[in-house]
Amino acid sequence: MKIVDLLQNWDVITLEDIYDFFEETDDVFIVKYDGERNINRYTILLIGSSSRFETIRRDCDNRKEGLLYVLKEYLKYETM
Fold first, then answer.
1. DSSP string, 20-50
2. 21, 29, 58, 72: which could form a disulfide with 66 (CB 3.0–4.6 Å)?
3. Is 57 helix (H, G, I), strand (E, B) or coil?
4. CA-wise closest residue to 6 among 75, 63, 80
5. Which residues pair with 57 in a beta bridge?
6. pLDDT tens digits, residue range 3-26?
7. Which tens digit of pLDDT belongs to each residue from 19-64?
C-alpha cells in the first residue's frame, strides 16, 4: 500500500490501516492523546528515518483532521 492509497480511501481508512502502512517503512508514526490539555489534545508525529524530512507534527483536537494533515505532508516527501 502507498500513502496515496490511504488518502484516496480516506473515508474507510482506520488507524490500524495507517499503522500497517508505517510498519512497512523505517519511519516512526506516533499518535498521542493528552486528556489533561484543554485544547490540542492530540499530537500526531511522523519522524523520518532518512534525511528526506526530520519531523512532521500536528497538534489538534480532531484526530482525523490531524492524521489527514500529517499524511498529506508525508506525501510531499514520499514523491521526492
1. HHHHTSSSEEEEEE-TT-SS--EEEEEE-SS
2. 58
3. strand
4. 75
5. 45
6. 888 899 899 999 999 999 999 988
7. 999 999 889 999 999 989 999 999 999 999 877 788 999 999 999 9
**Dist CA 1 CA 40 (whole Å):** 30
In one-letter notation, the amino acid at residue 23 is E
User: Residue 55: phi, psi to the nearest 5?
Assistant: -150, 140
Strands 42-47, 55-60: pairing is: antiparallel
Partners of 60 in the beta sheet? 42
Phi-psi region of 40 (alpha: psi -120 to 50; beta: other; left: phi over 0): left
Strands 28-33 and 55-60, how do they pair? Answer: unpaired
- Spatial separation of the C-alpha atoms in residues 51 and 14, rounded to whole Å: 28
